[in-house]
Amino acid sequence: MPNNDVFISYSRKDKVFVQRLDAALQQQGRSTWVDWSDIPLSADWWQEIREGIEGADVVVCVLTPAYLTSQVCHDETAYALQLKKRIIPVIRAMPDNTALTAAWKGQPWEAQAQHNWEQLRKINWLHLRRKADCNCQYDDKNRVTNPECDGEACDDDDFQAGFASLIAVMDVDLDYVKQHTRLLTRALEWDAQGRGASSLLRGDDLTEAEAWLASGEGKSPERTDLQTQYIFASRRAATARQRTLLASVSVALVIVAALALLAVNRSIAEQQARATAERNFDEAQSLALASLARQLYLNNADPFTALALALRANDLPEPSPVAQRILAEIAYDSGARRRLAGHTAGIRAVAYTPDGQEALSGGADRTLIRWNLASGTITQRLDGHADEIRSVDISPDGRFALSGGMDGVMILWELASGAALHRFEGHDRGLTGVAFSPDGTRAASASFDGSVIVWSLNDYGEMLRLPVNATGVLSVAFSPDGTRLVTGGYATPAQPDGLIVWDLSTGEAVFRPTVPGTVQSAAFSPDGQRVIGSQGSRALIWTLDDAQAQPLALEGHTLGIASVTFSPDGTRALTASGDGDVILWDTVTGQALRRLRGHRGPVASAPFNPANPQQALSASSDRFLIEWDLLPGAEVRDFADQTAVINALAFDGDTLLAASADQTARLYQGKAPAQQFNLPAPITAAALHGSQVVIGMDSGLIELFNRAGGPPRTLDGHSRGVTGIVFSPDGGRVISGSLDGWFIVWDTAAAGQEQRIETGGPVQAIAISPDGARVLSGGDGGLIALWDAQTGQRLWQITGHVNFEGEAERVTGVAFSPDNSRILTGGEDDTVVMRQAATGAQIGLLRGHSGGVTAVAFSPDGRLAASSSIDGSVIVWDATQLQEVRRFTTPNAGMDAGRVTALAFAPDGKTLAAGYWNGHVLMWRLDSLPELVAWARANRDVPPLTCDILAGYGLSNLCGALDAATLAPKTANP
């Protein structure tokens, strides 16, 4: 397989320019792979292309309209993306999006082209463009007939400057990139040869590969799954050969320790060098554990062990921000609080008591188990069935339980005593569902015998028998008012309606949906107006007053859904599937809100906690129950009082101001609104200082309120909408910025203007320095300027945010650090930039958002920075190391409703408020690392990292590096 520095992917129409680029690369001593041939496409030719891409450190894509409308070029791009190669897009001729879409339309490779284009647009482009009036001409074989079109005379961008940038990008983390190529080629050969032991890594090759794997978090190119599998397989084989030798240390990092110890022996300052070596070893081990934790978590291999590994990765005095971020991602995500073990065979059903404090589960071991959910302990075992239990329910008063088994019997239990009060034996085959009526006086049972029986719980007599489906009934549930039943059953040609709603007063079917199919599980909404039923791997929600209407489809599972249920308020639903997942759904939009993964087998049942609908239980054939948090652990509070986009947030002490385009601004103290201000126009900016509230509107008017009461004072000076407004530190002045291109300094006592400063373009964001001496503005065209707050003099101005096409983008957020030394800017180019306040010089570029940035902020102590985006994410950055340490997203991320539009740190730095497009304000926790670790251990199930578990992932060599305290099991508290 050829190994080269660069693979150049290009269209034949751009051959002359590529020859020039290739020559320049070779003059720099860079080896290249370029397909110069014009031979017909063949299998052998494509294999050569693949090998060229596989063996290259960097893939340079020469982007022109011809390139982006070529199937071959898209095939090359797709393969490079698949291998996670470092791709550098070089623009030679700017494509037109509309023309590209038209050219792709109807092509068999249209989807691939769109995906490639989306990925390429996310990467920083280098510009080596030709002038617009220098068009190339071609003969009938796509050969250039006027080669001067790609010569220096036709360059629109300076070739040497652009080429120097290309070399600089290629050299970033060059050793890491070359190791990526080397390991990829070896992993591909190992895979092609059947993954035999003879191709695995050994000795120094293996230890270097493991160190490379550990160091790769956040680097480009990303590691591939195949590379990871190859290294893990190599370690497992090496461990099997040298188990005794490798048991005491993390062999994945032996080379790091060895090099460090060698340095110690040669160092004059031996003690200091030894401390450095130990620190390096610990950090490398931390990154290795964190990297593995994230892989296990994202691949759903073992989310519980993933959390244990992430905690261990942070067991250092100063762990890497990468390790902190991975721990927060795993711990805070909506997920498993605890696993409950007690059944000896698969669990088929589970139900909560009405107070949510207890649960009852039944399964294939023919046993019912009663659980105390506060302690996670078993309080009772009930035996009475001769075959597996398929369904359980608990009475509305919590005193009784029903169980239905494959023995054809339904049993009524008294939970306090554990006594079986009655055995109902009216079915000829096994039971599939049991249910209490809402008033607790009746029970219903469904069976494979095709019938549903309604029983009296007063005299235990049969009240009604419904011949639902001769093939078999699979579920049954009462309506909230107890007057109807919904059944799910098999669909047959004779009876295609799997879901039927029955009137219990007449015994007649009153609703049969128009979408036929077997329904495994069915339930009523809390208001009784809708029903949900599962059909194969999807669930459907029907409105009962319109049988002809198309149901809302919930699609996301890959195998059949065994259980469906509405939340107590009807706005959400849970589905449990044979694919091992539980999905939380929005029942209005049909959007999947959360996918809960943790089971190792099919999930049979997943009810909401009736007393706390943000929690749920699930039962699986893996013999475990799992308690779930349905909200991210980092979410502290959700203020949902406003109905339109939140345009401004501000704190003053324990008071939060939230201003919305619905013309209201609310002050919050604690959980509830403390005061509301109503404005005559949509609010676009607002600020809070003590008793003063200042609010700007899209009309250009500003109102200054006193919280103690009295009429507001109007500040009239802008001709267009107000986009930013801040108080001076002493509250004596207000500074407002506007789309009219001016910012105005107002005297709050006199409600008059002190000065007006023209910025030269629409102002999108403003900030005042903590000492009150300077004002920072951001606006259209990427303009960022610093102003003297007293004189209005402009101190400096730069163009700060540029997109991948080289065009300046709007600056949408600006902020000062608490010590006045740094500024933060965010733009519609999806980036955040840290700069020196004195000069505007760039300190660092923060990338992590996939959409335009909407707001930026510093924490009160300056240790953290935060940014928000239209992509629905809030990212918290370490303001010193400029690395991501937290990321918060909502179920609506990626949709308009989930756009984040405003940010504000609480004065104590413990929480971060984020405002959203849909009018919600969420409070996110900002625990320090010790607080995060404590929260994770208190609220999540952390299994012991036993050597058996580690050996399952080929990491038995880590056993000696794990102390007894880390190995001790932890149990989550409710």
Question: Can you put this structure into words, describing what you see?
Answer:
The structure is a single chain. Helix 12 (254-266) runs antiparallel to helix 13, helix 13 packs parallel to helix 15 (321-332) and helix 15 runs parallel beside helix 16. The chain has a 5-stranded parallel sheet with strand order 2-1-3-4-5, with helices on both faces. Strands 6-33-32-31 form a 4-stranded antiparallel sheet, with no helix packed on it. Strands 7-8-9-10 form a 4-stranded antiparallel sheet, with no helix packed on it. The protein is globular, with a radius of gyration of 32 Å. 47% of the residues are buried. By secondary structure, it is of the alpha+beta class.
Low-confidence stretches: 242-266, 962-974
Order of strands side by side in the largest beta sheet?
Answer: 2-1-3-4-5
Percentage of β-strand residues: 35-45%
**Helical residues, percent:** 10-25%
* Radius of gyration, whole Å: 32 Å
Distance between the termini: 57 Å
Number of helices: 18
Counting helices, strands and paired strands, the structural category is: alpha+beta
* Integer average pLDDT: 87
Q: Outline, from the CA principal axes?
A: globular
What kind of sheet is the major sheet?
A: 5 strands, parallel
Kindly state the number of beta strands: 61
